[in-house]
Specification:
single chain, 465 residues, alpha/beta, UDP N-Acetylglucosamine Acyltransferase, domain 1, 2 domains, eight-stranded mixed β-sheet, 13 helices, globular
Length: 465
């Protein structure tokens, strides 16, 4: 813990740096709030002794609220879809907005989102980062939608040098001295950008918020009707955990009574077994949220800042250089706001509302026949698929980056509709009309690429020597 005088001086350095960038005073005050927590020894951890699992009986299910659909349709005119569009997709080797990646049949995440908003005749707003804003504007101009989406920018926080807790500096690339403050910044960004006032002035009260890479996050009229009719201030969509969701942030109830979201980064290492116990903490946050904008405005104006639970992320200053200095990144999760709204609730939704594309493994599933377009042009799980989840593990050396991935599936993704799991180790190229069924390992032990010939049906392990 720093001495008070040192801490105050250090904070003044951060404030000065943010002021020179023209960052809004509310954002500076928000960062200062978290910095004071850090110097007081706060880690952002949420311990088991302070929370209890949520009783499944208190969570309503989407399949039981279909009667609210008509109310939802009547409320679309007072609603907005807000899509988080700040990701660059660096984990897939992208250098531009991830939403511009082709998902299926030549359509990008962005095109699918714009089409969905137009189908429902609902307002669309995109929260960009300083890294994705220009790319997104250019792509939207080419799409020329009937209603151009509203755009606003998320903020940035200065990285904190682990040694001395002072502002990090990196003359090679000063952009690396800053980090996105996590998607919890959306509430402050809505307010400081003037977007919140603009929406409310237009009679828009209800916001559905989702990530651009979650193709299952569609505007659902039953959910909208249920949310609006019951006058909830905040509603989180949760799904039941499976063994594939061990790391997903889970819903719990604080001993003080309110609902709380705990992310894995907030879990003490000694308690990770409890965190990953899917029978104890049964519900994970899909990051599909519903917000009453009037309640949000009142909350911000009452407290001035949105003081979400802090996530303190240890990183290297340059994420591509492991020898660069150790830093802390202050981040927050937007789902954590569930603890701030009195009367907030959660609702259980099917996994079909949650299939994000985080890696090329996910993209292969989506590009295959496991997914199809519905009549409304939404991407849905193929009704002919009897197996639910599919496990795909592609060798990151050859499939981890999008350009390598596209080369190896140049003639299209294999049929995976009857596949339960697919693991590829080594360099393997696929020709057209390949079918994979059951549980399959494809291994190339050689030093040259292997090729799966057109029309091949694979129902057992393939090994190339």
């Amino acid at each position: 813990m720093l001495k008070y005088l040192d801490a105050a001086e250090n904070l003044s350095f951060f404030v000065s740096k943010m002021e020179k960038e023209g960052i809004d005073r509310i954002v500076i005050d928000t960062f200062a709030y978290y910095y004071r927590q850090i110097i007081e020894g706060e880690t952002g951890l949420v311990r088991d002794k302070d929370i209890v699992p949520v009783d499944p009986n208190e969570i309503e299910s989407l399949n039981k609220i279909q009667g609210y659909a008509e109310a939802g349709r009547d409320t679309l005119k007072n609603s907005v879809m807000i899509v988080l569009n700040g990701g660059l997709g660096t984990s897939m080797g992208l250098t531009k907005a991830k939403s511009l990646l082709e998902v299926k049949n030549g359509k990008t995440f962005l095109e699918l989102t714009v089409h969905q908003a137009e189908t429902h005749q609902v307002t669309l707003a995109l929260m960009n980062s300083f890294s994705t804003h220009q790319d997104t504007q250019a792509a939207l101009s080419k799409l020329n939608p009937s209603r151009f989406p509203l755009l606003f920018l998320q903020h940035k926080f200065p990285k904190i040098l682990k040694e001395g807790l002072v502002p990090a500096t990196w003359p090679k690339n000063s952009d690396l001295e800053w980090n996105p403050p996590g998607h919890g910044d959306i509430y402050t960004a809505l307010y400081t950008s003037g977007m919140l006032k603009k929406l409310l002035d237009q009679g828009i009260i209800y916001a559905f918020i989702s990530n651009s890479d979650n193709l299952g996050a569609t505007m659902d009229e039953s959910l909208l009707g249920y949310f609006s009719e019951n006058r909830f201030p905040f509603m989180m969509e949760v799904a039941e955990k499976t063994p594939d969701d061990l790391k997903g942030g889970h819903l719990a109830r604080h001993k003080k009574g309110h609902l709380i979201l705990r992310e894995i980064a907030q879990c003490p290492e000694a308690e990770l077994d409890a965190f990953t116990d899917i029978h104890r903490f049964r519900f994970f946050n899909t990051n599909n949220l519903w917000i009453n904008l009037k309640f949000l405005k009142n909350l911000i104006e009452k407290h001035r800042t949105i003081e979400l639970p802090m996530i303190l992320n240890p990183k290297t200053l340059d994420p591509r250089d492991e020898t660069s200095p150790q830093v802390y990144q202050v981040e927050t999760a937007m789902g954590a706001a569930i603890s701030l709204f009195e009367g907030a609730t959660a609702i259980k939704v099917p996994r079909s509302r949650f299939f994000p594309v985080k890696k090329c493994n996910d993209l292969l599933a989506v590009r295959s026949d496991c997914f199809i377009f519905s009549k409304e042009n939404n991407l849905i799980i193929n009704p002919k698929r009897t197996l639910y989840t599919i496990k795909i593990d592609l060798d990151p050396r050859y499939y981890g980056k999008i350009d390598f991935f596209d080369q190896r599936f140049k003639e299209g993704a294999p049929s995976l509709i009857h596949c339960e799991s697919l693991r590829i180790k080594g360099d393997v190229f696929f020709e057209s009309n390949v079918k994979v069924t059951g549980n399959v390992n494809i291994i190339n032990r050689g030093n040259t690429p292997a090729v799966i010939k057109a029309g091949t049906v694979i129902d057992h392990d393939f090994v190339f020597e």
